[in-house]
Design goal:
Helices cover about 40% and strands about 20% of the residues. It is an alpha+beta fold. Strands 1-2-3-5-4 form a five-stranded antiparallel sheet, sandwiched between helices.
C-alpha cells in the first residue's frame, strides 16, 4: 500500500492533463481504513494518519522530515533521540504492550530505518505503515521515502566502487558501509549517535531470522529471507523498505545485537583495505555468510 500509493501519486502528477477514474474500491475497507486511497488523491476512506492505530496496526502515515529535525533542535537533542522516542511510542501502539522483547526489537528496528531516511535520503517526507498479527506471530513494517536513493547517498563515500543501483543496495546492507562515515572522516568521541553504517545490516539480520527483509532503490530490489537472497528489477525513486519479523524468534535483543555487531565488526575489519569490499563479495556474503539461525538457535 505504501509503495503503490506513492507510485500512483507520482503517476498522476506526471500527467496533469489526464483524467483518472477509480473503480471497485468501495468494498476494499482495509486499505480505505489505513489511508491508502487518500494517500494518492482519491477522496475515499481515512486520510493518512487519521485512523487511531490502536488495534495492532499503524495506518499509512506521512511524516515531514524537516519537522522531525526541528522538534529535535527545539528540545536540544540529537534527532536520533527524537526518533528513538517516536519509535518506542509506535512499537507500543502496534503491539499494545508497554515493554518486553518485541517492543524493544520493534523500537530498535523502526528507529534505525527512520534514522536512515532522515540522515541519508534528503527526502522531504517519509511514509510508514505497519501491521501486527499476534496469532500468526508476524509483524510487517513498511517505510518509504522519495529522496535521492541509496546509490546517490553512498556515492559520497570515495572508497566505494558503485556502478549500479544493485551494487549500491548490496553494499548498503553490509556492516560499516556509509555515505557519511568512512576512512578519513573524523569520528566524534562519545557520540553514540554518529552514523556508523550498521543500521541496515543489523536490522536486516534481525528480520532474516524467521522473517524477511526487502529493500528497493532505483532499479534494484533485494529480498533477504531464510532460504537466501533474491534480486528483483524495480523502478523506485528514493528507497522502499519492508521488514517482516517472526515474533517467536525475537529472543534477547541485546544479546543478538551484540553478536551481530561483533560479527559485523570482524567483517568490516577484514574489508578495511582500499577498495577491498566489492559488490560481488557483498552479494556472496548476503547470500551465504549471513545465513539465518536454525530454529533451535538462541
Amino acid at each position: 500500500m505504501t509503495l503503490l500509493a506513492s507510485e500512483l501519486k507520482r503517476f498522476r502528477a506526471s500527467r496533469p492533463q489526464t483524467r483518472f477514474r477509480s473503480e471497485n474500491h468501495r468494498e476494499n475497507t482495509y486499505p480505505a481504513h489505513m489511508g491508502f486511497f487518500q494517500a494518492f488523491g482519491l477522496d475515499h476512506g481515512n486520510r493518512p494518519g487519521e485512523a487511531p492505530g490502536n488495534a495492532n496496526y499503524l495506518p499509512l502515515t506521512h511524516l515531514n522530515v524537516e519537522a522531525i529535525r526541528g522538534q529535535a533542535a527545539e528540545a536540544y537533542e540529537h534527532v536520533g533521540e527524537a526518533l528513538d522516542r517516536e519509535s518506542g511510542r509506535l512499537a507500543r501502539v502496534l503491539t499494545r504492550e508497554e515493554d518486553g522483547a518485541l517492543v524493544d526489537t520493534l523500537t530498535y528496528s523502526m528507529r534505525e530505518i527512520l534514522r536512515n531516511v532522515v540522515e541519508h535520503s534528503d527526502s522531504e517526507q517519509l511514509a510508514y505503515c505497519a501491521q501486527y498479527w499476534p496469532t500468526r506471530h508476524r509483524v510487517e513494517i513498511a517505510v518509504l521515502d522519495t529522496g535521492i536513493g541509496v546509490r546517490a547517498s553512498l556515492s559520497a563515500n570515495p572508497h566505494l566502487p558503485i556502478e549500479s543501483d544493485r551494487a549500491a543496495v548490496q553494499l548498503a546492507l553490509m556492516p560499516s558501509i556509509s555515505g557519511k562515515m568512512y576512512r578519513g572522516v573524523r569520528r566524534r568521541a562519545n557520540d553514540h549517535w554518529q552514523n556508523s553504517g550498521y543500521g541496515l545490516y543489523m536490522t536486516s539480520r534481525l528480520c532474516r531470522n524467521g522473517g524477511d527483509f526487502f529493500i528497493a532503490s532505483g532499479t534494484s530490489g533485494i529480498l533477504l529471507e531464510q532460504r537466501g537472497k533474491s534480486d528483483y528489477p524495480c523502478n523506485v525513486p528514493g528507497t522502499a523498505l519492508r521488514l517482516v519479523l517472526d515474533t517467536r524468534r525475537i529472543g534477547d535483543l541485546h544479546e543478538r545485537l551484540d553478536r551481530f555487531r561483533t560479527e559485523g565488526y570482524a567483517i568490516a575489519q577484514r574489508n578495511a583495505g582500499p577498495d577491498a569490499l566489492s559488490p560481488s563479495s557483498a552479494s556472496t556474503m548476503l547470500a551465504r555468510d549471513f545465513a539465518p539461525e536454525t530454529p533451535d538457535a538462541g
